[in-house]
Amino acid sequence: MDLLDEPVPGVGTYEDFNTIDWVREKSKDRDRHREIATKSKESTLALMKSISDAFSGWLLMLLVGLMAGALAGGIDISARWMTDLKEGVCLNGLWFNHEHCCWNSNKTTFQERDKCPNWKSWAELIVGTNDGPFAYIMNYLMYVCWALLFSFLAVSLVRAFAPYACGSGIPEIKTILSGFIIRGYLGKWTLMIKTITLVLAVSSGLSLGKEGPLVHVACCCGNILCHLFTKYRRNEAKRREVLSAAAAVGVSVAFGAPIGGVLFSLEEVSYYFPLKTLWRSFFAALVAAFTLRSINPFGNSRLVLFYVEFHSPWHLLELIPFILLGIFGGIWGTTRLGHYPVLEVLVVTAVTALLAFPNSYTRMSTSELISELFNDCGLLDSSQLCNYANVSVTKISSDALPDRPAGPDVYTAMWQLSLALVFKMLITVVTFGMKVPSGLFIPSMAVGAIAGRLLGVGMEQLAYYHHDWVIFRGWCSPGADCITPGLYAMVGAAACLGGVTRMTVSLVVIMFELTGGLEYIVPLMAATMTSKWVADALGREGIYEAHIRLNGYPFLESKEEFSHKTLAMDVMRPRRSDPPLSVITQDGMSVEEVESLIAETSYSGFPVVVSHESQRLVGFVQRRDLVISIENARKRQEGVVSASRIFFTEYTPPQPPNSPPPLKLRGIMDLSPFTVTDHTAMDIVVDIFRKLGLRQCLVTHNGRLLGIITKKDILKHMAQMANRDPDSILFN
């Protein structure tokens, strides 16, 4: 029996924690496509099949967009309700959060819009009053208890059912998109537990965001829905195209920024991003944003909580403070992150809740804090940050108020924000490594937004009291609206996020989609670029690259230059002191010999040569394919025993009369493995691996096989050249 005639189930698939062969997957897809195109000319039914095959990609994108949008809407609504549950409960209906509870009330005054008879704090329910020290302690205690309960549930669920649901998931998704296989990372259990625990973790008040984990959730949706379509289920490279689009969907629903999502996928996470994937990502991000808009989770007809609109123009001289914010963001982006075990979740939650409650800016959810900081003070704002001294204003435009002196509440708010800044900076570093779903986007933006608002208010007061200074003269006359503190907060948020993730183009687009402020692209670009330069000068890698390296994932970073003068012979195995390379001959080995070779070694594949003496290369065969084919032949082919010969040749030579039937395995052999000569420069080899997504490359000298270079060998060599431990490139 020739295995070419009948495909064996399992051949051409990969084991867990292995890298896919992009070249083989792409060629499999081309063959499939060619076959469908040829058949479509034969009958109407085949033509219909061809059309449905072409349409399946778009249908899959539609489903991913709908599913991710619906899940994101559910997460947003649940997280807001549970965050408010820490402070009180609605008597009209338990399912209303604070804001929705007070919407229907007729007794709400404008000044005290948060207070309405339907909403009761825990102190009012338990003690009967909301005033006095005892009521404060009661509210404090309930806040801490709820926070501990939520975080305990989150960490317990992650630990018991889906260990892969912790963290943001973006470093792992980058690694998976580069061709690595982590089974179960994008499975249904991970999706279910991540969705539930993300709500719990955000509601517990820990300094983490839901934006990064939403990318993981969207990729889980993409992976699960791929199983509905054969062409995506059976081809790992095609599936990664869907996952690239799903990453764009994740950012689209996280920030309400569909175009920013597509650019994020292109700039930050994708390894292979053809034009077709760009269009499909665009479509999927659009569907997801539309779905989320239909759900309207925040009740403000916006996709995010902190949508703002500024109207006053900025001045060229303001670029100096914007660049200062960029420098701050770059320095903050290089802080080292810790890794903490499961038990510390409760300790960190307790510390967070105890320190956060007394300060109103740390008590509110991080998204609400950013919303408050981005806010441009209007006449109707009753926020502490907008409590300016009233100056008689002759002309008030509907858009902008003139700069005014700060009132006592603004100074109080400045102190509270300064403390909140220190608190957020310290607690975020501790929180990010913990075993709960945790994103870094929102905490980083909060740190930047606080710093920006402090600087903005400082600049505003400086301009008010010293408008005759040289720097303000000419563009900042008395009674004019010169400085917008909310804009500084927005620029600071972008700078800090850029410093941490090293995003540039996608970040600027996300920020102006968030804020609707097209005229502020230049300040955002200046701050983002500065923060990237500063962060790169202090430490080469962003947070995701650092995580990939800490976890030892086999990821070849395309942004990293290989500048060393080494040759392929310096990196290939076997080295001079090693035993010779394990090979299979094309016609001389029995089933028993091949099985013992497989049992004695742990290699992922074996080169096939003409003979041990000549070492002329014929092809390459994967270990998994060999094992499956031999097992299958023993079950289904009569007479195959340990003494049967294995042939990788095109024609089988005549066998002696009493010998057992041979086993022909030419069908599973790669007849065109990538080869380089022993004198090929390593920078070229690294480029070949990056651009073609190779698993391994064979090294020859005058046509004779000398050795093999795998992706892991390259990563170990690069680590060695950078004076790092080469054994850290071993995914555990």
UniProtKB/TrEMBL annotation:
<dbReference type="GO" id="GO:0005524">
    <property type="term" value="F:ATP binding"/>
</dbReference>
<dbReference type="GO" id="GO:0005794">
    <property type="term" value="C:Golgi apparatus"/>
</dbReference>
<keyword id="KW-0129">CBS domain</keyword>
<keyword id="KW-0067">ATP-binding</keyword>
<dbReference type="GO" id="GO:0008021">
    <property type="term" value="C:synaptic vesicle"/>
</dbReference>
<feature type="domain" description="CBS">
    <location>
        <begin position="669"/>
        <end position="726"/>
    </location>
</feature>
<dbReference type="Pfam" id="PF00571">
    <property type="entry name" value="CBS"/>
</dbReference>
<feature type="transmembrane region" description="Helical">
    <location>
        <begin position="55"/>
        <end position="75"/>
    </location>
</feature>
<dbReference type="InterPro" id="IPR014743">
    <property type="entry name" value="Cl-channel_core"/>
</dbReference>
<keyword id="KW-0967">Endosome</keyword>
<protein>
    <recommendedName>
        <fullName>Chloride channel protein</fullName>
    </recommendedName>
</protein>
<feature type="transmembrane region" description="Helical">
    <location>
        <begin position="413"/>
        <end position="434"/>
    </location>
</feature>
<dbReference type="Pfam" id="PF00654">
    <property type="entry name" value="Voltage_CLC"/>
</dbReference>
<keyword id="KW-0812">Transmembrane</keyword>
<dbReference type="InterPro" id="IPR046342">
    <property type="entry name" value="CBS_dom_sf"/>
</dbReference>
<feature type="transmembrane region" description="Helical">
    <location>
        <begin position="440"/>
        <end position="459"/>
    </location>
</feature>
<keyword id="KW-1133">Transmembrane helix</keyword>
<keyword id="KW-0547">Nucleotide-binding</keyword>
<feature type="transmembrane region" description="Helical">
    <location>
        <begin position="339"/>
        <end position="357"/>
    </location>
</feature>
<dbReference type="GO" id="GO:0005886">
    <property type="term" value="C:plasma membrane"/>
</dbReference>
<feature type="transmembrane region" description="Helical">
    <location>
        <begin position="242"/>
        <end position="266"/>
    </location>
</feature>
<keyword id="KW-0472">Membrane</keyword>
<feature type="transmembrane region" description="Helical">
    <location>
        <begin position="186"/>
        <end position="208"/>
    </location>
</feature>
<keyword id="KW-0050">Antiport</keyword>
<feature type="transmembrane region" description="Helical">
    <location>
        <begin position="140"/>
        <end position="165"/>
    </location>
</feature>
<dbReference type="GO" id="GO:0015297">
    <property type="term" value="F:antiporter activity"/>
</dbReference>
<keyword id="KW-0868">Chloride</keyword>
<feature type="transmembrane region" description="Helical">
    <location>
        <begin position="316"/>
        <end position="333"/>
    </location>
</feature>
<feature type="domain" description="CBS">
    <location>
        <begin position="572"/>
        <end position="636"/>
    </location>
</feature>
<dbReference type="InterPro" id="IPR000644">
    <property type="entry name" value="CBS_dom"/>
</dbReference>
<dbReference type="GO" id="GO:0005769">
    <property type="term" value="C:early endosome"/>
</dbReference>
<feature type="transmembrane region" description="Helical">
    <location>
        <begin position="214"/>
        <end position="230"/>
    </location>
</feature>
<dbReference type="GO" id="GO:0010008">
    <property type="term" value="C:endosome membrane"/>
</dbReference>
<dbReference type="GO" id="GO:0005247">
    <property type="term" value="F:voltage-gated chloride channel activity"/>
</dbReference>
<keyword id="KW-0813">Transport</keyword>
<comment type="similarity">
    <text>Belongs to the chloride channel (TC 2.A.49) family.</text>
</comment>
<dbReference type="InterPro" id="IPR001807">
    <property type="entry name" value="ClC"/>
</dbReference>
<keyword id="KW-0677">Repeat</keyword>
<keyword id="KW-0406">Ion transport</keyword>
